[in-house]
Amino acid sequence: MIRIASLLLVLLLNPLVSFVAPANATEAGWALLREGGHVVLLRHAYAAGTTDAPRIDLDDCRTQRGLSDRGKQQARRLGSLIAARAQPVVEVYTSRYCRTRETADLAFGSSLVTDLPALDPTGDQAAQEAAKNEILSLVEGFTRSGNLVFVTHDDVIRSLTGSGAREGEAVIVRRSPEGLHIAARIIFN
C-alpha cells in the first residue's frame, strides 16, 4: 500500500514540476522587461503550414507561410501583455517576411516597426555572418530605458544565441564576448 501511495505521489508531482520551470523562466523574463533597457528576440507567432514556397517573393505574401488565425490572436495577446507588464517597447525591428511583419504590426503597432533585412533567414554563411554582426551592432548601441524587440525566425535566433525558440516565444538577451547570452524567456501560450 505504501508503494502505491508513493508511486501516486510521484506521478502527481511530476506534471507539476514540468509546469513550474517554464513559469519561473517566464516570470524572470517579465522581471527583466519591467526594468527596461533590454533586448528581446521574438520568434514570429504561429504560422500556417510547415514550409514556404520554393521561390519566396518578399513582396508577395502568397509565396510565404502566413500567420494562422491562432497566430494573429497570439500576436495581439503578446503585444497586450508586454504593454501591460513591461517598460514600453521603444523600437521594433522585423524580418521582411510577411509572418514576422504581421506579428510585429499586430503586437506593437506599425508605427514602431522597421524592416531589417539582417533578420531574414539566409542559407548563405557569409550573408548570415554579416547579418549577425549588424544585429549585434544594434544590440550594443541600444541604451534607451524602454525595450528593443527584434521579430524574426527560429534559425536567426539560433544563429545569434545557439538556442532556438518556439513560435511566439520571447528570448531576452544580453551582449557577451561570445555574442548574445540568453538571460530569460517568456513563453506565450
TrEMBL record:
UniProt-listed InterPro entries: His_Pase_superF_clade-1 (IPR013078), His_PPase_superfam (IPR029033)
Entry annotated with the keyword Repressor: no
Record keyword Signal present: yes
Signal sequence annotation: 1-20
Top-rank taxon, per record: Bacteria
SUPFAM superfamilies: Phosphoglycerate mutase-like
Record key words, sorted: Signal
Protein name: Histidine phosphatase family protein
